[in-house]
Amino acid sequence: GQQVMQIPQYQHVQEGEDFTTYCNSSTTLSNIQWYKQRPGGHPVFLIQLVKSGEVKKQKRLTFQFGEAKKNSSLHITATQTTDVGTYFCAGRDSSYKLIFGSGTRLLVRP
Amino acid sequence: KAGVTQTPRYLIKTRGQQVTLSCSPISGHRSVSWYQQTPGQGLQFLFEYFSETQRNKGNFPGRFSGRQFSNSRSEMNVSTLELGDSALYLCASSQPGTVRNTGELFFGEGSRLTVL
Fold first, then answer.
1. pLDDT under 70: residue ranges of chain B
2. Which of A35, A90, B7, B101 is an S-S bond match for B96, by CB 3.0 to 4.6 Å?
3. What is the spatial distance between Cα B11 and Cα B13, in angstroms, rounded to a whole number?
């Protein structure tokens, strides 16, 4: 079945540094979604990318969808302590199940 | 607008018992998905229901089952509990308009199950 791999597993940065997490699928995705889960909380939807090569920005967050629609990335510029949490990508497989990546846990040193 | 409500929030069971978890989706949402979250395995897809029909199923044993009612509320049941079933069970609702469910998921707070 489809697999969605995400790296790195953990990232510990100094406040103000940039952060990037990468997501790779074994198959072509119809779209990809990104979620953030704060410690002790539940995943919260951030964004959805649909088109090949699509780039979307939300303030300090930049999301990209690869040309082949098999990979994606989330980049955070100048991290803040409020960015702490686990970031998940999620892609729909051929039967439209939403499969989540393993997540990247971001820790930010103040 | 009320969010996704899951009950109970916390529960402790012993091996061999069974458990039923409940999920009330956001009003108007007809699709409900269930995920199991554990520290080592991340978010694993259990099943998805739409209009009382199971539309998709993950790779879990038959001990895991679910259903959806006409008011879109959903329940999942785990029978003959094992220690490895200890996890956070998350329910999410969405508002798909077509078979190709591309809607964003709205998650509940989850039901944390501990099996002793």
1. 1, 96-102
2. B101
3. 7
